[in-house]
Amino acid sequence: MDDHLTPEELRRLMCGRLPAKRRHAFISHLIGGCGQCGAEIAPYLPLLSVKVDHSAVPPPPLLEVYDGAVERAIASVRGLGPALPKAKTAEEQKREALDLLTERGLEGLYDAPPDLQGPPLCEALLERSWALRYEDPDQMVQLAHTATLLAERLSENELSARERAVLLCRALIELGNAYRVADELDRATDALGRAALLLGEDRTSLEPRFLTVQASLFAARRRFDLACTTQDVVVDMYLRLGDKHLAGRALIMKGLFIGYQGNAEEAVRVIELGLSFVDRHRDPGLVFSAAQSQARFLVDCGRFQEARRALWDLRQLNPGVGGRVNELKVRWLEGQIFVALEQLDNAERALRQVKQGFEETGLSYKSALAGLELAAVLLRRNRLEDSAELAVECTGTFLSLGIQRETIASLLVLRKAAETRRLTLALLQQVIDSLCRAERDPNGSLG
Question: Cα separations (Å) of 173 from 130, 186, 224, 322, 431?
Answer without folding.
Answer: 11, 14, 20, 23, 35
